[in-house]
Design brief:
Elements: H1 2-6, H2 12-55, H3 63-73, E1 84-89, E2 97-100, H4 104-119, H5 123-132, E3 141-142, E4 149-150, H6 158-169, H7 174-183, H8 204-213, H9 216-225, H10 230-240, E5 249-252, E6 259-268, H11 272-275, E7 281-290, E8 302-303, E9 314-318, E10 328-329, E11 334-337, E12 340-343, E13 349-353, H12 359-368, E14 374-380, E15 401-403, E16 407-414, E17 425-437, E18 440-442, E19 454-455
Parallel strand pairs: 5-11, 8-14
Antiparallel strand pairs: 1-6, 2-5, 3-4, 6-7, 7-19, 9-17, 10-13, 11-12, 13-15, 14-16, 16-17, 17-18
Helix pairs in contact: 2-3, 4-10, 5-10, 7-8
Length: 457
């Protein structure tokens, strides 16, 4: 009986068919679901490539939006069907912040430097510096135009000052005079009968006034009032303008802003494989693009003195071109990261500011200003330079805005290392000029600055 049972083959076909069916479903699932995963991976990769290339060409504020716009064009839309599209700059260890451009110590140092510079200048240069800082000095000068001079020193004799002060004190009440005399240590109880009014049998009020006027403190004040140094007053008014830098901000971005990583992720719903108990598959693809195109990159200076027309000629970018005069872009227009400085030109203007470029830009500049490296410098058009000079129609003063129509972007090569010291001069070699045309900078041949974005991973 046992031998008969062991030799029985009924039902074995069902087992074999079941096993074969499971294997067939597995292979079918691998083909269909695996193919779906492969196709999704391919689409995500194409979308990530497109998003990274697009996002790295715009400002850091707009990079993720631009990247997602381009992944959507490649059928990968953030937030749809469990899809995410994330854009992040490589080495961006933190978030973008808006900070005070200057510390209190930096402002005080600049004020001291400016005062020292102004004290070494001639009167006409001091007057010109006041104009540049938009300081009203009409009450300190006489004459008009280039013939303006400081008012002559006003001198009074000691007798005149004493007489004026005596007349003023005589209008005071007895009690106020007593308090004043007590403050200067010359009060006498013998002058009064009730500590409120002076005695009437003698001119004790006059005696009190005379005692006050003869104190050394009053005499020192008389000497100071005997002359007015209008030049010194103007210098102090100019120096006060540096305090306005307390309100200036700067956008600081961690990371180098050179490479953008875009990651696209989507969950693929299994069909056949779910029958066998396999969970849905999460597929991810990423791409890293490097920005070699121009996206507002520039040194934080404005060239106001004209520029070469022939490739290879030398020029210089100045943080400081003379006493009290700085050719720089407002910190409010800058986006700064360790290896990049961008200028926000979204309003099609650049703001000219006086005052040194602050220490927060020094380290990024040293990373940028390297011999042989390509940098960009904003400059007034040669045809417009004279219009921006002193007394011209568009004379630049502190805080004035320059329309991009009057600006060119200069492509240059760094020719000398720069350490941010001395006269703050950056030596450059001119390569090409780009004019502002239809909301973009273009060369005469129609090409744009920079070499365009490229994928690096």
């Amino acid at each position: 009986m046992l031998k008969k049972l062991l030799g029985e083959e009924k039902g074995s076909v069902i087992i074999m068919v079941t096993i074969a069916l499971v294997v067939l479903i597995g292979f079918t699932g691998m083909v269909i679901d695996g193919g779906s995963v492969y196709l999704t991976k391919s689409r995500l990769q194409n979308a990530a490539d497109a998003g990274a290339l697009a996002g790295v060409t715009v400002s850091s504020d707009d990079s993720e939006t631009e990247a997602r716009n381009y992944t959507k064009l490649n059928e990968v839309e953030h937030g749809v069907n469990g899809t995410t599209v994330i854009a992040e700059y490589i080495a961006a260890a933190g978030t973008e912040t808006t900070e005070e451009a200057y510390t209190e110590d930096e402002i005080e140092e600049m004020k001291a430097d400016l005062e020292a510079e102004l004290n070494d200048m001639g009167d006409q240069d001091v007057i010109a510096a006041a104009d540049g800082y938009k300081v009203d000095i009409s009450s300190y000068t006489e004459g008009s135009g280039d013939s303006r001079i400081f008012k002559t020193v006003t001198t009074k004799t000691l007798e005149q000052i004493v007489d004026e002060e005596r007349a003023l004190l005589e209008t005071w009440s007895d009690l106020d005079l007593m308090n004043e005399a007590n403050q200067y240590g010359v009060y006498s109880m013998s002058w009064t009968s009730d500590n409120v009014t002076f005695k009437t049998n003698k001119d004790y009020k006059g005696t009190c006034i005379k005692a006050i006027l003869e104190t050394s403190a009053y005499q020192d004040r008389f000497a100071a009032e005997s002359s007015t140094n209008y030049r010194a007053l103007v210098i102090q008014e100019i120096v006060k303008e540096i305090d306005a830098l307390k309100n200036e901000k700067i956008v600081m971005t961690p990371g180098n802003l050179d490479r953008l990583k875009v990651t696209c992720t989507r969950t693929v719903q299994n069909s056949f494989m779910s029958v066998l108990g396999f969970k849905n598959t999460t597929v991810s693809a990423f791409a890293v693009a490097e920005n070699s195109s121009w996206a507002g990159d520039a040194l934080p200076f404005i060239n106001l003195d004209g520029y070469p027309s022939t490739e290879g000629e030398e020029l210089e970018a100045w943080n400081k071109v003379g006493p009290g005069d700085k050719e720089r872009i407002s910190n409010d227009d800058l986006i700064v990261s360790p290896h990049r400085i961008q200028v926000d030109i979204s309003d099609e203007k650049i703001t000219f500011k006086k005052g040194k470029v602050m220490s927060k830009i020094k380290d990024p500049l040293q990373n940028i200003v390297v011999v042989g490296k390509t940098v960009y410098l904003f400059s007034i058009k040669n045809s417009e330079v004279n219009n921006y000079k002193k007394k011209a129609d568009k004379e630049l003063k502190n805080g004035h805005e320059i329309d991009l129509e009057d600006i060119v972007l200069l492509e240059c090569i760094v020719t000398e290392e720069w350490d941010g010291t001395g006269s703050d001069v950056i030596s450059l070699k001119f390569v090409k000029a780009y004019d502002w045309d239809e909301n973009v900078f273009k060369s005469a041949a129609g090409d744009k600055p920079g070499g365009g974005p490229r994928l690096v991973e």
